[in-house]
User: Which sequence fits this backbone?
């Protein structure tokens, strides 16, 4: 709920924001069965991925907290703020960094841009389930066909 009162500003100080969310804003975390944090971002955090992953694994391991990341890749040249991030990486490196962080937090990763969805754990999971259903259906059809031939 507190997120609705926030204004877009700040830096890519991921650790500062995460610490605030986990250590201050989840005061009643023991009263809830499950909680999730959603990071909506356009670039890589200032801190090293390994440092963040270690902290996230420790912070999320104490209770059922999952960190989910939605990475939005902005088309080159559309950043009107003029702010150069403290740490730079290309879109693929940024996606790989957040995938590592999300894995440490047992969360989900989604990467999209103006052109559409580049990668999504939810969509990957749905496609996997559809493939399993298709394979099962084919096995059932084969079994039915072989039973018909015996009759």
Assistant:
């Amino acid at each position: 709920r507190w997120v609705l009162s926030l204004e877009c500003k700040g830096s890519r100080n991921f650790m500062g924001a995460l610490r605030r969310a986990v250590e201050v804003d989840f005061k009643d975390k023991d009263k809830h069965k499950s909680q999730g944090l959603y990071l909506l971002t356009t670039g890589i955090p200032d801190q090293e991925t390994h440092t963040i992953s270690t902290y996230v694994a420790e912070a999320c391991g104490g209770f059922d907290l999952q960190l989910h990341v939605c990475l939005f890749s902005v088309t080159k040249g559309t950043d009107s703020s003029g702010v150069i991030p403290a740490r730079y990486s290309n879109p693929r490196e940024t996606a790989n960094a957040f995938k590592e962080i999300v894995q440490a937090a047992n969360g989900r990763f989604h990467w999209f841009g103006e052109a559409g969805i580049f990668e999504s754990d939810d969509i990957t999971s749905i496609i996997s389930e559809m493939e399993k259903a298709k394979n099962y259906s084919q096995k059932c059809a084969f079994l039915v066909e072989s039973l018909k031939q015996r009759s």
Notes: The mean pLDDT is 81. The CA atoms of residues 30 and 63 lie 7 Å apart. The radius of gyration is 21 Å. The first helix runs from residue 14 to 24.
